[in-house]
Amino acid sequence: MPWWTWATLIFFVLVAAASAAVTVLSLLRMRRLNAMGERVAVALDDLTRKTEDLERRLEHAQERAELVERKVAKLNASMEQLSVLTWALGDVVKTVSQVRSAVTESSASSTAASR
To answer: What is the pTM of this model?
Structure first.
């Protein structure tokens, strides 16, 4: 065999070995990328689940906030009623005190007049 055949054969083997090495490296890199993709997909699923849980909790918190707002409004109305009733009670106590004083003075003057 002539020398150029050997040179071509060696060149062909080198090119085949280089392409095999590139193929193996590419396959390993693809395998790592697939594994990374699976980890990212799992992380995204976990993040989605946590986001949904957070949305549910937020909805529940909003419902509770609305309930609290209604109860605070009712409490404010009750406090206003209590204020009016307290004022009215003070007025009644004052009136009863005046009536007692009048009755006491009237009975004292009628007792003094009868003596």
So the answer is: 0.52
